[in-house]
Amino acid sequence: MDWIDTITRTFFDVDAMLAVLPQLLAVGLKNTLIISVSATVIGLVLGMVLAVMGISRTRWLRVPARLYTDIFRGLPAILTILLIGQGFAGMSQQVFGASPYPLGIAALSLIASAYIGEIFRAGIQSIDKGQLEACRALGMSYPKAMALVVVPQGVRRVLPALVNEFIAIVKDSSLVYFLGLLVGERELFRVGQDAAVLTGNLSPLVMAGVFYLIITVPLTHLVNYFDHRFRAGRRRATEPSSGLAEVEELNTTPSTVGSKA
């Protein structure tokens, strides 16, 4: 049928896909991973700072953290990227040259830190307050108790959410192309788009989408695996206590009967 041939030629032209494959591997994939990993690492550091500030008892720490989070979570990602990329272009040229690459990473880092900060905050606040009180009773200072006991447990609980955030950063990295990346700095989307414009065929963009799927789909299954393991671990942790209660009940029942007799 004609429409099947049209769809095949437009989206699944094997020759066009194979032609763009070397650039996707050598340029697009490398730059996408560099942008995503760099933004995630910076976002993790800033996010932890925001989380600690957000749960602080001091108002002058808590309020700025909330304002920062509300602003960068409320703005569209493309708007933040354009504001950072164009607003600080002159300053960036003096330090990094003509490349807008660092500004794209900076913009994604600011966006990621707002979301990661909320993830960390939720994880930390999910830990029972009795653990912090127990640490304080043992003579540990508040910062030491948070750093050694509360925060590590909170981070472990939110690992699936952090992986989900990394997936979102990988997809948002495609928006950096609005800043006009150099030829050697193009990420997956820009490589596919340029090839699609030159060939008049959308198959290179489809091939770029395949690369995004190769990155994100395994991570999605990894999130499900982590979530299953953590849920199973929590169930196993509660089983001994319930079993102990049953044993105690069985031990107390005969004595009660005997006393009545």
TrEMBL record:
An example Gene Ontology CC term for this record: ATP-binding cassette (ABC) transporter complex
Keywords assigned: Amino-acid transport, Cell membrane, Membrane, Transmembrane, Transmembrane helix, Transport
Record-level GO BP terms: amino acid transport
InterPro entries membership: AA_ABC_transptr_permease_3TM, ArtM/GltK/GlnP/TcyL/YhdX-like, MetI-like, MetI-like_sf
Region (Disordered): 241-261
SUPFAM superfamilies: MetI-like (SSF161098)
Main location: membrane
Family under the similarity heading: Belongs to the binding-protein-dependent transport system permease family. HisMQ subfamily.
Protein name: ABC transmembrane type-1 domain-containing protein
